[in-house]
Write a structure and sequence with these properties.
406 residues, alpha+beta, three-stranded mixed beta sheet, 13-stranded mixed beta sheet, disordered C terminus
């Protein structure tokens, strides 16, 4: 059965059009179609990752310097620094932001939500149609660069959620669809490591999990406070042969997995990539949060869009027009109406995220799939909790698996 939902697409580029509008023809060189010559003429700064033994990084100063330059040039649709933000009172510290600039008086567009893997469609908006002035710099994992390869670029999101909100677009001219591959996820993880700031997070939304542009991209921004998901307890359920620990979130409204450790960031990235490819191939929508300067990665399967398409979401939740993508699932609630912001409570945030989560039974099935994809088996469980700046690990040899409370 074909499942679709209607939503107003987020405008991430000043050259983005209504999907119902007829697209202009033409390629490159002044016709709003990016090409290699346009990128070369833009003379973008090039950032390549430092060797592991070096402690100096300047990614943050480069990113924020270029972002501020585009802000001063008026390329953003609104001033995100003027948006109200507060921590919702309660145990979990959900964060609410009032972002009325993201609410567009445009006709909602239909999005298919029953297919995580869809082919790239050049007739729809994609990142080859952004203006070169929206590009900040080229970001590559290492040197030397092959002149024949498509560059990976960092661009502004013209509808920012927070300060420094950018898009990482791997191999932009290759026109890759929105799906995880090992090389691209490793590039995103490198970006989090290079930023060297725990308040800089990198996120990913699959199709069916509120990605609306089917051109491979990650998002990232700064927010100088901990996300609720980062403070959530977790229960270790397995360890890969490469030392990557796999845990499941406990006492959090969204059921999800946490990946950490490993002998290298590539091994951590490869494990998450294997799990993500497994979800893609099994048509399970998901979101990824890269946290703690690349030390932890959260993998969050979800079913909200499917519920919405089947009429299983209440009109009260739909009226908020909140699209629970990676940031919302991590506890940063981006609200578009003042009454929702003023009336935000922990109970309401929990209620929304509980609708996003897979059922306990379905989540167990997903864990089994992921174990097969990563070559893992279940093992003795260890429950960890974050207490201030310290992580306490408790060995629980007889602990029963705790269901996430609703």
């Amino acid at each position: 059965m074909l499942l679709k939902i209607k939503r107003v697409p987020t405008v991430v580029s000043n050259h983005q059009k209504d999907e119902t509008a007829e697209e202009e023809e033409g390629e490159g060189c002044g016709r709003n179609i990016l090409s290699k010559c346009c990128i070369n003429e833009a003379r973008l700064p090039l950032y390549t990752c430092k060797p592991a033994e070096e402690n100096v990084t300047f990614l943050e100063s480069l990113l924020l310097g270029e972002w501020e330059d585009r802000f001063q040039r008026g390329l953003f649709r609104y001033d995100v620094t003027a948006c109200e933000t507060k921590v919702i009172p309660g145990k979990y510290g959900f964060i609410a932001q009032l972002n009325e600039g993201r609410h567009l008086k445009k006709r909602p567009t239909e999005f298919r939500v029953d297919k995580v893997l869809q082919p790239f469609d050049a007739n729809k908006f994609n990142f080859t149609k952004v203006s070169p002035e929206e590009l900040l710099f080229q970001f590559e994992a290492d040197m030397p660069l092959d002149a024949d390869n498509s560059p990976s670029v960092v661009a502004i999101n013209v509808s920012p959620i927070e300060y420094g909100h950018v898009l990482l677009i791997p191999r932009v001219l290759d026109c890759l669809p929105q799906r995880i591959d090992h090389k691209s996820l490793l590039l995103a993880l490198h970006m989090a490591v290079e930023a060297a700031n725990p308040y800089f997070r990198v996120g990913y939304n699959s199709l069916g999990a509120f990605a609306t542009i089917n051109h491979l991209h990650f998002q990232a921004y700064y927010l100088a406070m901990p996300f609720p998901i980062e403070k959530a307890h977790s229960l270790k359920i397995s360890t890969t042969n490469d030392g990557v620990r796999i845990s499941k979130l406990m006492s959090y409204p969204v059921r999800g997995l946490l990946f950490a450790g490993g002998n290298s960031i590539k091994e951590l990235s490869d494990t998450v990539s294997n799990a993500s490819v497994c979800l893609q191939n099994n048509n399970i929508p998901f979101n990824i949060l890269i946290s703690d300067s690349g030390k932890r990665i959260f993998l969050l399967p979800q079913c909200y869009a499917e519920k919405q398409a089947l009429g299983g979401v209440s009109s009260e939740l739909l009226d908020t027009q909140v699209n629970p993508a990676v940031w919302e699932m991590s506890g940063h609630m981006v609200l578009k109406r003042k009454k929702d912001y003023e009336g935000a409570t922990e109970e309401k945030a929990w209620s929304l995220l509980a609708e996003v989560s897979l059922s306990e039974e379905r989540f167990k099935e997903v864990i089994t799939m992921i174990f097969e994809a990563t070559g893992c088996n279940g093992e003795e469980e260890e429950q960890s909790s974050i207490d201030g700046d310290f992580i306490r690990v408790h060995c629980c040899h007889s602990v029963k698996e705790e269901a996430v409370s609703n």
